[in-house]
């Protein structure tokens, strides 16, 4: 009884330490590996991710019967190498995820600062739009936009930015409202700084932390949304190797039990989102003690 | 109270106006909306007919007025594919979506509430740690992937459950679990924090001082009050579930509103896509309004805010 209790305590202590002290090793390691894979995909991937041999269709992974070391993780319904597609898929997810998060972050932060600092009708207009857009279910809204502009990687980034900037605007505006009552901002006004200067030099640096924390947490959401859009056929256009698209293709072999086409891309998505969430939680505690309550 | 209601309803109406304006502007942003609103492969005459019908040669404000007038008369246009009014299609599918959402909600509460209570009662203990891991996994595994894994396991390997379609009670199990999975994590987190808050309050201390058994304190006194915010969130989430089920419904070919949206994309049936988005937004605005008003009735402090 005593022993098991002690063991329990150490495990939880370790879990807690993992999340608050030092660098979170697991998420950083995963994200680094994925980043390296994404950057050097051309060198690392053993095969061309977009060209397959029809004679090599539905090969299982190397360790199963019928698999070969030529295709370590097997092949898909048109004989493309799964491992190579997963590696290039990391590039698509990373590029789309990061650019969309940054795009949404810049738009949302700028509008949040303008709304919070200027107040009045600017605030009213920006916040009413923010409220209304927040009411739209994100995925449905994204699908609607994708149906209008058509699928492409560039469009996906713009769509995700358009859907998710509202969350930054909300948080940033709230912070600005309290920041602008601080003494140093008042002093800057007395010193004759223009509104532009105050917003850029005094407000912006103080909201950047929250924006970065939010961006890290949003990264996971954005990647899942991209995967869902690609899965539905309105995201990254085929034959590009996106993980969501691979899952959609994998459905063709699902009933025949070709598990690797469904399990592997999903594991990649999960690892990336999990890492982003863990990193975001850790950053939240580190960078912004105020947010700890949330 | 009256002033609060008027103001809150006013905000909701304003939200709806901004919503409709957003949809209106985006449809026209790409240039010529008649291309979107007319069937693919339609003749020049058809496109011209749509153009005059929508008044695309008239000023934008007049066009917007016409658009809103259509919405107010619940005229959402006709589906290209089914050749029936979109609203009829939508209402036809809605009961299926609600059924799916209700079962998914049952799953998510059945998992989320007990694990949340356990985590709160044994705070920082093993259960709490396990709960944290579970919540992280819930947030990190996309629902449609969970769905695909369920099919792989229960339909392909074990052959216990049907992989897609609807009709029997068995059909609803897997899509509902996949959909409820993500929400279970959210409900667990809220149950935990709400429970912790209640357990720290004075009346719980009193109940303990009175010498009530711990089980009674937790189950009867704490649980009931901790449940209020969780059930509120569940109410909002139920509406959200109807609207985020697109991918899960596509995976399981479940004939709900989400599946309708997917068909709308697949068949380039733009009126269907547009209607699903608008009605989804309207539903959420209305539910948020209802929750706010309900809270104002329960808690008078909210009425006099600001």
List the SSEs and their pairings.
The complex is a heterodimer of chains A (294) and B (306).
Chain A: H1 2-20, H2 25-39, H3 41-44, H4 82-118, H5 120-135, H6 138-149, H7 153-179, H8 183-190, H9 195-232, H10 243-250, H11 260-287
Helix pairs in contact in A: 2-4, 2-11, 4-5, 4-7, 4-9, 5-7, 6-7, 7-9, 8-9, 9-10, 9-11, 10-11
Chain B: H1 2-29, H2 33-37, H3 44-54, H4 60-72, H5 86-121, H6 126-140, H7 143-157, H8 169-199, H9 202-209, H10 214-244, H11 246-252, H12 257-266, H13 270-298, H14 300-303
Major sheet size, sense and barrel closure of chain A: none
Name the chain pair whose interface involves the most residues. A-B, 49 and 57 residues
Quickly give the CATH architecture of chain A. Orthogonal Bundle
Please give the number of β-strands of chain A: 0
Which spans of chain A have pLDDT < 50 for at least 5 consecutive residues?
1-9
CATH superfamily placement of chain A: MetI-like
Q: What is the radius of gyration of chain B?
A: 24 Å
Give the H and E element order of chain B: HHHHHHHHHHHHHH
Question: Your description of this structure?
Answer:
The complex is a heterodimer of chains A (294) and B (306). Chain A has 294 residues and is mainly α. Chain A has a single domain, classed as MetI-like fold. Helices cover 72% and strands 0% of the residues of chain A. In chain A, helix 6 packs across helix 7, helix 7 packs antiparallel against helix 9 and helix 9 runs parallel beside helix 10. Chain A is elongated. The N terminus of chain A is likely disordered. With 306 residues, chain B is an all-alpha fold. In chain B, helix 5 packs across helix 8 and helix 12 runs antiparallel to helix 13. The longest helix of chain B has 36 residues. The radius of gyration of chain B is 24 Å and the shape is flat. The chains are: A mainly alpha (294), B mainly alpha (306). Chains A and B meet through helix 1, helix 5, helix 6, helix 9 and helix 11 of A and helix 1, helix 6, helix 7, helix 10 and helix 11 of B.
């Amino acid at each position: 009884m005593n022993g098991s209790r002690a063991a329990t305590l150490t495990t939880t202590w370790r879990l807690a330490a993992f999340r608050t002290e030092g660098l979170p090793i697991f998420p950083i390691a995963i994200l680094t590996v994925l980043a390296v894979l994404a950057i050097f995909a051309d060198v690392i991937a053993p095969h061309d991710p977009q060209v397959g041999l029809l004679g090599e269709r539905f090969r299982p992974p190397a360790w199963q019967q019928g698999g070969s070391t030529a295709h370590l993780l097997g092949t898909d319904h048109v004989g493309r190498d799964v491992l190579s597609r997963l590696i290039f898929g990391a590039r698509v997810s990373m590029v789309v995820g990061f650019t969309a998060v940054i795009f949404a972050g810049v738009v949302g932060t700028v509008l949040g600062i303008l709304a919070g600092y200027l107040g009045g009708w600017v605030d009213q207009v920006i916040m009413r739009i923010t409220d209304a857009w927040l009411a739209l279910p994100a995925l449905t809204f994204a699908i609607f936009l994708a149906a209008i502009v058509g699928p492409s990687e560039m469009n996906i980034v713009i769509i995700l930015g358009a859907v998710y900037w509202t969350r930054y605007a909300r948080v940033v505006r709230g912070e600005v409202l309290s920041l602008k009552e601080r003494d140093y901002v008042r002093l800057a006004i007395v010193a004759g700084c223009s509104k532009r200067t105050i917003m850029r030099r005094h407000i912006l640096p103080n909201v950047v932390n929250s924006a970065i924390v939010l961006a890290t947490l949003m990264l996971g959401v954005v990647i899942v949304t991209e995967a869902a859009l690609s899965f539905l056929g309105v995201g990254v256009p085929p034959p590009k190797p996106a993980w969501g698209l691979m899952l959609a293709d994998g459905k063709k072999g699902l009933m025949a039990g070709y598990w690797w086409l469904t399990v592997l891309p999903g594991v990649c998505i999960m690892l990336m989102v999990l890492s982003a969430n863990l990193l975001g939680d850790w950053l939240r505690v580190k960078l912004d003690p105020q947010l700890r309550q949330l | 109270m009256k002033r609060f209601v008027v103001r809150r309803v006013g905000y909701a109406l304003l939200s709806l106006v901004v919503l409709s304006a957003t949809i209106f502007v985006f449809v026209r942003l790409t240039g010529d909306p008649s291309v979107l609103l007319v069937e693919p492969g339609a003749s020049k005459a058809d496109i011209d007919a749509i153009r005059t019908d929508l008044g695309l040669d008239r000023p934008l404000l007049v066009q917007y007025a016409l658009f809103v007038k259509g919405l107010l008369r619940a005229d959402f246009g006709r589906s290209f594919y089914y050749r029936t009014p979109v609203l009829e299609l939508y209402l036809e599918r809605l009961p299926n979506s609600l059924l799916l959402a209700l079962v998914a909600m049952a799953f998510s509460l059945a998992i989320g509430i007990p694990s949340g209570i356990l985590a709160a009662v044994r705070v920082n203990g093993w259960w709490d740690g396990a709960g944290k891991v579970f919540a992280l996994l819930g947030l990190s595994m996309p629902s449609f992937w969970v769905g695909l894994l369920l099919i792989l396991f229960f339909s392909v390997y074990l052959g216990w459950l049907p992989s897609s379609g609807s009709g029997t009670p068995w059909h609803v199990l897997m899509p509902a679990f996949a959909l409820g999975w993500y929400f279970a994590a959210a409900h667990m987190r809220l149950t935990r924090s709400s429970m912790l808050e209640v357990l720290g309050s004075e009346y719980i201390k009193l109940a303990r001082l009175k010498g009530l058994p711990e089980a009674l304190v937790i189950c009867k006194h704490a649980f009931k009050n901790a449940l209020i915010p969780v059930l509120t969130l569940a109410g909002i989430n139920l509406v959200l579930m109807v609207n985020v089920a697109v991918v899960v419904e596509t995976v399981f070919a479940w004939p709900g509103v989400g599946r309708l949206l997917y068909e709308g994309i697949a068949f380039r049936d733009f009126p269907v896509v547009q209607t699903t988005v608008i009605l989804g937004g309207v539903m959420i605005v209305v539910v948020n309004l209802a929750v706010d008003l309900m809270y104002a009735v329960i808690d008078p402090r909210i009425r006099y805010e600001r």
